[in-house]
Amino acid sequence: MGRPETLLEGLCGHALSFGSHTITVEYKDGHEWVFANKDGMNVRTAKYASSSADAKELRGNLVTAAKKPVRLIAGGQVYLLKVRIFDSFGEDSFEVSIDPVPKHDPSIAPPFTAKQGQYLAFIYNYTTIHGRAPAELDMQRYFRVFAPSVHEMIKTLQRNGLIERTPGEARSIRILVQPEHLPRLG
């Protein structure tokens, strides 16, 4: 999975690792309690003192995700985290659903930026010519950018469902966009 971007993403990735697709965060006795729901049972997965930096970060992550769902990559699959805020004994509580993102319809061109299109076109052309996907170093050299820029672009393309990767396997990028929807490599 790589390092999660936020505490919320880490907790959701942990919940997914044992088959849960929902977590709940509730305040009680000066703590933020995190429960994963599996087969109708709530299993406590974390507990943070409400005054701690982790609890504050988690609450911030939850409020942000309640406004706009967050994409999470776990086990090579893209998930959408949707947060519902509800009242529990006068306190805000949060329910997070962790749902797989459906694959794009290949007959419809998916939305992507011009820069994302160039990366997709490069990956497609490189794979066609060399018979294997490019390494991040190949993209770094072609686009004349630093390694973190390439890595962030790859993560963005995967989060947006434009490519797939096999976790832990080098050169495992697979394009999920039909070639006719890709721009010319410029």
Quick recap:
The chain is an alpha+beta fold. The protein has helices at 7-17, 53-67, 114-130, 136-143, 147-159, and strands spanning 22-28, 31-38, 41-49, 70-74, 77-88, 91-100, 163-164, 174-175. The mean pLDDT is 90.
Folded structure, characterized:
The protein has 186 residues and is α+β, with helices and mostly antiparallel strands. It is 34% helix and 30% strand. The chain has 2 domains: 7-100, Beta-Lactamase (2-Layer Sandwich); 114-181, Winged helix-like DNA-binding domain superfamily/Winged helix DNA-binding domain (Arc Repressor Mutant, subunit A). It has a 6-stranded antiparallel beta sheet with strand order 3-2-1-6-5-4. A hairpin with a 2-residue loop joins strand 1 (22-28) and strand 2. The longest helix is centred in the middle third of the chain and has 17 residues, at 114-130.
